[in-house]
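Example (one chain per record):
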Amino acid sequence: MFKKLQTYEFYLTAIWLVCILLVNPIGDFALNDDWSYALNAQALTLENKIEFNDWGAMTLVAHSFWGALFCKIFGFSFTVLRASTLVLAWGAIMACFHFFQEGGMKRQHSFWATLLLVFNTFFFVNAFSYMTEVPFLFFFISAAYFSLKAIIEKGQYNIIIATVFSMVAVLIRQHGVLVPLAFFFTYIIKNKSSLKSVIQSLIPVAFTFGTLFLFIEWREASFGLSKNFGHIGDLITNFYNGKFAYALTRKANGYFAFWGLFSVPVLILLFKDFWNKDR
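Predicted structure:
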């Protein structure tokens, strides 16, 4: 019985549980900026009303509901909020593992590549907080996984599931629109530009952008938008005033260097496979 449980998913789960025990996330105190996001969850938990703190620059509402769900069951505290994130962190680990496999990576290589995510400092630190990055990553990777399944295996149900995950992702952070956009172009190229493929590829885009648009309209009318939230017009303006180019040149080199160095172990494994194929 135990041998049947000894799968890569089992090992990843066991490693994550050991990490949780070693870190010990218990403590009723805020970490980083999650004090701001906790205020939204607190209002939902104790007063059954939606509030938005001006500090946040993201949509946030799905994140607040997820945290409030745990607090309704176990009581409001930062420990409970962190537990809600740790659950989605485990989900992100599983989704990442299966995403790599769906992309054609061997199970063993998928396991080691997923461990890179687990012990990536950005993922690991944020998983033990009530920050939005890890919950968003779970829905983002899940949307990408089912989008990839729809491209490779087809099946309209995969498109529907990917759309739902994208809609939830965009209600945590606006970057959730990226998966439907990538799916739109890839699906059309893979299936040629038929009317059916265009309509199918537009479903995630239409529903995800529609969800974001309706949320912004509702929030602006009901609560107003904070300065940090920004507008689409600001993004366009930043292309012309040089702020986008400045941010790209200032930060991109560091990010790319960090990602590259952290990816070296799995790149070595993949290089061995490519080398053997070429020979």
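Caption: The longest helix spans residues 243-278.
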